[in-house]
């Protein structure tokens, strides 16, 4: 038996949800560029869950179902106030809160497709409320109730800040949600599929996936990008800092990808949004620094930016706190995780690969007093 480190190149399942072929990303056969330019996040949720775009009445129904399910049990909101340590990471809080939601769902253990679909709607709706409420509660503010007439993207920004966003802000955030929604068998989606392939419940799958997304080699990279930009602080400092990092063989967050070689097709949409939003804010430096870093890393290492790189300056320009960047990724990717969870259940087999053993050969047990 030989292993592939990090399972590189291993095809672990079949899926009809999204594909990456020759650096082109599609959701159910629709090019990501087409969706980023035209689709609402709600349409993408429907597309991922049903493998087709919704008709107008189906979209209206999904929007209504999401709006009706955004409220979160008070006990889950209250638990945000109980942490003893002050610097609880929002992804850790979210991981616990999603698990806790399952304790208030009468259907949590129901394993039929209809019940699982209903749970998918509840989780997708409530995860936006959880992230925004956590952001407010830790700042000593009350959560804001969603407005039923706003889109998912606008509602998120509204629930976070208490103000209905401008059209350009809603457009940028919707685009970010569309771009992050699914990505074939990335680490967190694989984690979700492994969890539910034991026939564990939907909440277990999403909770496990949040844990996997949290790390800086995956979704956690967007927060680290903003940390790097903040530390560099000016376009003049970029060359020195980045060259030093590369010379020291440090990883530059937001660059590189396991699957893409020529570049991540999602990055350009976020780059363009970063340019627009930083200009509107009068804070072009974040965009200009990002462009300069991109030139150096891509030029010197042939490592193009991934989806996490320009999303950092987009979210910063939307006045979002930096440690909420990864939870926002989770809000969007929940749609993909749920699509994969439903797909896994529909054609399930336990996921159980093998390990190539590299430890010592056969040994004889020695009693503790003789060791
Ligand atoms: C939504 C997402 O999850 S997108 C990815 C988000 N993560 C990041 O942006 C973190 C930074 N990037 C990385 O760590 C990697 O590129 C990953 C994790 C995305 C992909 O990792 P892998 O496919 O395992 O590549 P691996 O880490 O083995 O890197 C291969 C080589 O490229 C180098 N490399 C890869 N990414 C980077 C980077 N961001 N900066 C500098 N060098 C890099 C590695 O040091 C390694 O060099 P070596 O062969 O000389 O040792
Ligand atoms: O696919 C991956 O490995 C990581 C990624 O870009 C994503 O999850 O969006």
Radius of gyration: 21 Å
The outline comes out as: globular
Q: Order of strands in the sheet with the most strands?
A: 1-2-3
Mean pLDDT: 97
The largest sheet, given as strand count, sense and whether it forms a barrel, is:
3 strands, antiparallel
* CATH homologous superfamily classification of the largest domain: Citrate Synthase, domain 1
Summed up, the domain count is 2
CA distance, first residue to last residue: 33 Å
Describe the structure.
It catalyses: oxaloacetate + acetyl-CoA + H2O = citrate + CoA + H(+). Keywords: Acyltransferase, Transferase, Tricarboxylic acid cycle. The chain has 371 residues and is mainly alpha-helical. The chain has 16 helices and 3 strands. It folds into 2 domains: 15-215 and 326-346, Citrate Synthase, domain 1, CATH 1.10.580.10; 221-317, Cytochrome P450-Terp, domain 2 (Cytochrome p450-Terp, domain 2), CATH 1.10.230. Strands 1-2-3 form a 3-stranded antiparallel β-sheet. Helix 8 (167-180) packs antiparallel against helix 13 and helix 8 (167-180) packs across helix 16. The longest helix has 25 residues, at 113-137. The protein is globular, with a radius of gyration of 21 Å. The structure holds acetyl coenzyme *A and oxaloacetate ion. Residues 6, 217-219, 221, 251-258, 301, 303, 306-308 line the site of acetyl coenzyme *A.
